[in-house]
Structure formats: C-alpha cells, structure tokens
Specification:
alpha+beta, L-fuculose-1-phosphate Aldolase, 2 domains, 9-stranded mixed sheet, 11 helices, about 40% helix, elongated
C-alpha cells in the first residue's frame, strides 16, 4: 500500500483548508468540506475491506451507497489539518443501506465527520444528478460575503446581479448565479434539504447571516467559485456607501457571457 499521507486527495485537502483558514473564511471550527473520491485511487492507499468503525450519518442516502468521501471532522480547526490530517480528516464510505458511514481512515482521536454531513450528502446527491463530475461540496464563512448579507436584499436575482456588476469575470465564473436561503438553524436536515433543492440550479448557495455553500468538480474549482463571490462582495462593501459613477451594464454582461460561451441566467439581467 502507498502512504495515505502522501495521497493527492489528502495533500489537496491540506492545502485547501490551510488557504481557507489563511483567508479568514473558516475561523475556529467554522466550515467543512466533503470530496467524493475515486474508489480505485483510494484502494491504492487503503485496504477497503478494513472498516475501523461505523458511524450513523443521521440521514439516509441510498443514491450514494458505496461512495467514498474524504470529509473534515466535527469540531476540528482548519488551521490544524495541514499538520495533523489523520486526526482532522476522515475517509468514509456510505453503507449499502445509505444510513451509515464506514470509517476507512482518519478521525484518529475517536471523533467523526462534520455535523453538517447530512447537508453535504444531500447536496452531493442533488449535484451529481445535474453534473456527474461535481465531486466537491465546500462550506465556509467568507467575511465580505457575510457582511453583504446584512446590507443587501436577500433576493437571488438582485444579489446575483449586484455580484455580477462588481467584477468583469463574475458572470463568466458563476453564470448560473447564486442561490439564497433565509437564516435557518444549521446542522439540521431541514437546512440540508433546502440547500439541496437550491443545488439543483445553483452551484453556490448563500446561507443568510452564516456563510456559503459551493459545489464543483474539483477542490480548486469550488474554492475559486467562492473566492470570486468573496472578491465581488468585498468590492461591493468597499463602494456601497459611495456614489457610483460607473458600472458594468447588463448589455456588457451579455457580451461577456456570449463571448466566453457560458450558459447564463438571462432572467437575472434587467434587459
């Protein structure tokens, strides 16, 4: 067997969590990531017949049965993942009945996956139906995106339109827009169900006064989606109190979307 600590997916998780903490998106134990892995690749590093222990997920996900994920741990700080991945991360396989997580590696102190795993699994199930290559679900608390929640209408069209206006790249990076949920109690199946419903049409979902959920094909892509929203929110918060002399017009956004051949939400523009 190869050394699991040198596996590309472990290295990616270490780098991504370190970056998210460095940027101030994931204070303390805020935020979580789940990443759907390739079974054959995992089999090069772990004995897939060896289950360390079985942990109830609190949610039944039959469509994900047998699938393997690397997931950040509950109560774990992103700043510690890089130095101690075996304690702060875990590799789990969803049981045949979809109700339990079979721990294959990690959570070495006896811990378990993030308390928001049900929300992640629901989002994975929803996104895989839209795009079978969407393998990552990422949740964080980006500072300016959160600040924007308090001063901007929490309307999907208006929120997306404002973000698109802030940076030329925005409509190209997230042409499907940003979904928005009202404040809801976190760590519950209710917020997971609501997020999964939004994930049917958005790769990005705002949890009002809490943070953001992103989904993508890779850790890099998903990180980049959230990073672009955060940059746009930062520009908005730096300029919202000032008279606006210039902006990106809707007809210019159409030119951008068509030039880069992205499928964009035409109903989110004012034409």
């Amino acid at each position: 067997m190869k050394d699991i600590l040198k596996a590309p997916f472990v290295e990616e998780m270490k780098k991504t969590t370190a970056n998210m903490y460095r940027l101030g998106w994931d204070e303390r134990n805020g935020g979580n990531i789940s990443y759907l892995l390739d079974e054959r690749e995992v089999g090069e590093y772990l004995d897939l017949k060896r289950v360390i222990r079985t942990i109830p997920t609190g949610f039944c996900a039959p469509s994900l049965a047998g699938k393997i994920f690397i997931v950040t741990g509950t109560g774990k700080y992103f700043k510690n993942v890089e130095k101690d991945p075996e304690n702060n991360l875990g590799i789990i396989r969803i049981s045949k009945d979809g109700k339990d997580a079979e721990l294959l590696w990690g959570y070495s102190d006896g811990g378990k996956f993030t308390s928001e795993l049900p929300a992640h699994l629901m989002s994975h199930a929803a996104r895989l139906k839209v795009d079978p290559e969407n393998r990552v679900v990422m949740h964080s608390h980006p500072t300016y995106t959160l600040a924007m929640n308090y001063v901007h209408e929490l309307d999907e069209k208006k929120f997306t339109h404002t973000l698109w206006e802030m940076c030329t790249e925005c409509i190209v990076v997230f042409p499907d827009g940003v979904g928005v949920l009202p404040w809801m109690l976190c760590g519950t199946n209710s917020i997971g169900e609501a997020t999964a419903e939004k994930m049917k049409e958005f790769r990005l979902v705002i949890w009002a006064m809490h943070g953001i959920y992103g989904a993508g094909k890779t850790l890099d892509e998903t990180f980049g989606l959230i990073e672009t929203v955060e940059k746009a929110a930062q520009i908005y918060m730096l300029t919202a109190h000032l008279p606006r002399l210039n902006t990106i017009k809707d007809e210019d956004m159409v030119k951008l979307a068509e030039f880069f051949k992205v499928k964009y939400r035409k109903d989110f523009l004012n034409l």
